[in-house]
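Practice problem 4.
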């Protein structure tokens, strides 16, 4: 790896009214260090270090919206309540003091509420009263056994309340001075629970084919956009895989992807974030293009790719404790695909946990500290 090789990443990108200084993004990563849903006192320094290390844009850990079932584990922060908002104010201040940009990733766990506290009673918001088809997962087996028992579908009132909860939390984030908003529409949580056919079998206006299943996402996007100043970008993360089934797929073809992303983009999304486990993973048969590349092709919007930068094993391997922890110098491949225009930004997850200076080292062509699962136990 050389500085010359990675130099194309170090060019700015303007999204709506915000210019990101380079093409690197800190991927959203729930670290479970919050205390009773309040960001940990070390969170400001944790995020600031990544900016000082050269990251162009921080997307925070998944953060619960203002709804009682948005986040089951007290280690996950909220974007509501005085103490949590004071914690986030300190994070925003630290990142801005270092000259950085930060978007909160807002989520509601939806049908998977309870997976983070598997010994407690399962109570969750489910589009159709089901968690879809479970598969390979790091969730506890006894949680999945209980969670797979059908409950009841969300009522109209619950749907309206959930949408309003996103809007309230976005209002809070805007007041705190965040630079943009990132919505978690991936991994089987509430928004994705509506997008995925296995978990959304509704026959009313919230269900149907892949385009009709975007109705909930579209209403959330419209509601949050109404709370955001004109210049502020909105990022939308989506995925094929679910936390409850790493092999699941929401779309089977670029045509289906287009039918899903079209309404989502039209509702007011500026930047699409395709959550994939390896940035070189082909999305559909017959092409080597990844999911981010297809998203860009079918919508014309800028896209973020992600997945195993610098690593020879995936995030699901990390969670399921499968596979070894080998490094992989895949930066030449990354640059080949970035230079070909497949994606506009690259998000980096685990490599940034183990090395806050990972991006600076990419820029200078230096060897980073290698990721190990052990690094998940400290917030530094
Ligand atoms: C510890 C950890 C926590 C994560 N938490 C989130 C999260 O809160 N929201 C999200 O969208 N993705 C989450 N992810 C997925 C990452 O954003 C990223 O897509 C994934 O780790 C692949 O990138 P990497 O291979 O560079 O780590 C998490 C991943 C890890 C390792």
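Answer key:
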């Amino acid at each position: 790896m050389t500085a010359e090789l990675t130099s194309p990443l170090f060019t700015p990108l303007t999204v709506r009214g915000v210019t990101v200084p380079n093409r690197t993004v800190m991927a959203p990563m729930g670290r479970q260090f919050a205390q009773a849903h309040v960001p940990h006192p070390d969170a400001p320094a944790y995020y600031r270090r990544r900016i000082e290390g050269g990251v162009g844009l921080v997307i925070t850990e998944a953060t619960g919206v203002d709804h009682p079932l948005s986040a089951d584990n007290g280690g996950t922060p909220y974007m509501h309540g005085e103490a949590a908002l004071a914690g986030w104010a300190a994070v925003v201040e630290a990142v801005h003091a270092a000259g950085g940009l930060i978007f909160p990733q807002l989520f509601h766990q939806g049908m998977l509420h309870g997976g983070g506290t598997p010994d407690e009673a399962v109570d969750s918001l489910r589009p159709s009263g089901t968690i879809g088809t479970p598969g390979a997962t790091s969730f506890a087996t006894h949680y999945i056994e209980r969670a797979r028992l059908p409950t009841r579908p969300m009522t109209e009132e619950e749907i309206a309340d959930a949408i309003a909860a996103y809007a309230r939390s976005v209002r809070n984030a805007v007041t705190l001075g965040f630079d943009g908003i990132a919505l978690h529409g991936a991994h089987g949580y509430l928004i994705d629970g509506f997008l995925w056919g296995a978990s959304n079998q509704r026959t009313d206006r919230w269900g149907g084919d892949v385009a009709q299943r975007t109705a909930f996402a579209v209403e959330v996007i419209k509601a949050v956009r109404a709370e955001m100043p004109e210049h502020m970008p909105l990022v939308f993360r989506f995925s094929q895989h679910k936390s409850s089934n790493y092999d699941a797929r929401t779309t089977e073809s670029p045509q289906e992807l287009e039918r899903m992303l079209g309404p989502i983009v039209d509702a007011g999304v500026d930047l699409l974030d395709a959550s994939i486990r390896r940035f070189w993973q082909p999305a559909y048969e017959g092409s080597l293009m990844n999911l981010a590349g297809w998203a860009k092709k079918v919508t014309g919007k800028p896209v973020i790719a992600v997945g195993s930068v610098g690593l020879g094993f995936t995030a699901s391997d990390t969670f399921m404790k499968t596979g070894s922890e080998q490094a992989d110098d895949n930066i030449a491949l990354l640059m080949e695909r970035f230079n070909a225009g497949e994606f506009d930004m690259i998000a980096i997850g685990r490599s940034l946990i183990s090395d806050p200076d990972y991006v600076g080292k990419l820029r200078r062509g230096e060897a980073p500290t290698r990721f190990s699962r052990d690094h998940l136990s400290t917030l530094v």
